[in-house]
Amino acid sequence: MNTDMIKVVKIGGNVIDSEEALRGFCRDFAALKGPKVLVHGGGVMASRFQEHLGVPVQMVEGRRVTDAETIRIVTMVYAGWAGKHIAALLQSFGCNAMSMAGCDASVIKASRRAPKLLSDGCTTVDYGLVGDVTEESVDAAPLSSLLSLGITPVLCAITHDGKGNLLNTNADTIASSVCCALGAQLLYCFEKDGVLLDRDDPGSVVKRLTPESYSRLRSEGKISDGMIPKLDNAFAALDRGALSVRIKNAAALLDENAGTEIFLKKPYEH
Known about the structure:
Elements: E1 7-11, H1 19-31, E2 36-40, H2 43-52, E3 59-60, E4 63-64, H3 68-92, E5 97-101, E6 111-112, E7 116-117, E8 124-125, E9 131-132, H4 140-148, E10 152-156, E11 158-160, E12 166-168, H5 171-182, E13 185-190, E14 208-209, H6 211-219, H7 227-239, E15 244-249, E16 260-262
Parallel strand pairs: 1-2, 1-13, 2-10, 5-10, 13-15, 14-16
Antiparallel strand pairs: 3-4, 6-9, 7-8, 11-12, 15-16
């Protein structure tokens, strides 16, 4: 692997909610050579906090419906505790990290999502204060400036619309868009060993995934829920110029061959 290439690493799932797993990941991320950007979620922690405050959690096709109260909570979790805690851990391992949200320095300007027709073809849902972004939404200049100073951006998915409103944006989408804007490699890391045929069987990792095999496995119900937006963003990133995309266990960050590699076509096709 060319260590001069920028790597965009997204960490999420239950890893952020486990101090031991998060500390191990931060140690490995700090050891990752070359310029890098960390994009983090925190959905498990945000959901638990919502429930603690009596605010209902509503997820539709792996994405959070965000009302006015929910945007306050996810901002406190993502742009507050989660991001600052990750930055502090990275500093302890010698990585000069700076926690920021997508709205800071207008790194990511999003548009509020219009009501969306779901995959069943008949149900429409209003996701509320949720932002949609593309690589054109990302201003790569502030990130590039930080990287040139030896500072590693730790970015959460709270964006803005340019009208004074904060928007909750899927962190996988943020990682995909930032990767394309920077012309980078993309690594999605979470608590599983990759894309699994059986979520309860660690040995069922799909080593390579193409749009055709993804469509088939999704129709069979073997890929569902939160893995859907992750894979949608993985394929979108490759289509828009990402150098490579891999989905893997956070504990295997430094193993270049671990997990599931995403392809736009079969590896042997030209």
